[in-house]
Amino acid sequence: NNIGPEGGRSIGDALKESKTLRTLDLEDNNIGREGACSIGDGLKVSKTLQSLDLGDNNIGPEGGRSIGDALKESKTLRTLDLEDNNIGREGACSIGDGLKESKTLRTLYLSTNNIGPEGARSIGDGLKESKSLQMLYLSTNNIGPEGARSIADGGKECQILQSLDLSANNIGQEAVRSIGDGLKESKTLQTLFLSYNKIGPEGARSIGDGLKESKTLRTLYLSTNNIGPEGAR
Questions:
Q1: Which of 38, 70, 99, 141 could form a disulfide with 12 if both were Cys (CB 3.0 to 4.6 A apart)?
Q2: 160 DSSP assignment
Q3: E strand intervals along the chain
């Protein structure tokens, strides 16, 4: 539809007054930073919205900050999709802060946002204090080894997380040990995505050690990791 920033502003204004809207899908509408800020303002006061999809809208760091601020105040939002929006480190920091205060958000899609290691640290910190998040999708974010450790640390303390996607983040074999350790401690994680992360044989062994002690994990994705016969033993 390509409603653009002006359309985003109109939708944001309508959100403030709507008494019935529960699901809003604005994916790929080029609303940009301005539109996202207006949607954020509407989200803060909405008493009904449960699902919001702003994927592929180029909202950038400022738009990410606005949505993060809205998370702190929303009393209804359960699902948020911000995939492919280039929110970067700054936007991720605000989203992390929002996670700490949100009492309703259950599912968060943040894939392909270039949040990097620092952004991952903020999300990890948010995980530690989250009271509601059950599903977190962070694939293709260039979080690297440092970011993976931050998410793993957060996951250890978030005893409600059920699904975690860290695919295509260049985690490497050393940092994946933290994820393996997290598997041993988690009492809730059921699904883990680690494909395309260069974990190699050593990393696969770390995950295997975690699997031995996990009492909840049901589904594990490890494709394209150069595990080889040694890592599969």
A1: 38
A2: T
A3: 23-25, 51-53, 79-81, 107-109, 135-137, 163-165, 191-193, 219-221
Q: Between the CA of residue 44 and those of 36, 102, 197, 202, 232, what are the distances in Å?
A: 12, 12, 37, 46, 48
Contacts of 38 by beta carbon, 8 Å cutoff, 6+ apart = 8, 9, 11, 12, 13
Half-sphere exposure of 211 (CA within 13 A, CB side): 16
Tens digits of per-residue pLDDT, 74-125? 999 999 999 999 999 999 999 999 999 999 999 999 999 999 999 999 999 9
Structure tokens at 51: 């699902």
**Which tokens go with 120?**
């991952």
In this structure, the dihedral spanned by the alpha carbons of residues 207, 144, 112 and 80, taken in order and rounded to 10 degrees, is 60
Dihedral sign for Cα atoms in the order 84, 88, 94, 100:
positive
Residue with tokens 């080894």, as numbered in its chain = 145
> Rounded to whole angstroms, how far apart are CA atoms 172 and 54?
31
The amino acid at 74: S
Residue 203: Cβ-neighbour burial (10 angstroms; 0-12, 13-18, 19+): buried
